[in-house]
Amino acid sequence: MKDIFKGQLVRLSAMDHEEFGKAYATWNRDSELMRLMDSGASVLHSVKAGKDFFEKMVEKNSPEHHFFSIRGLSITGLDETLLLGSALVTAKTGVKAMARMP
Fold it and tell me: C-alpha dihedral over 45, 47, 49, 55, to 10 degrees?
């Protein structure tokens, strides 16, 4: 997948809805991550529900919202294909990111 932005430790690439659905279904089972993300009760979602959620989120957002995948670089000792998280970049609010380290 082509890099969109590349830093010293991570790179941003295009969002793959299918991949995010699988990742979020797994991440939702991590109680510590869910506790840090939200104070409410965690709800488990299927892979299909996660994929549908991301597709709808991208469709309903304005053209000034840009979604990316966060991936590590090989110098960090991580597999470069491993999905670490997601980032939303907007002109008004800047960057909102969520990452889960393996």
Answer: 130
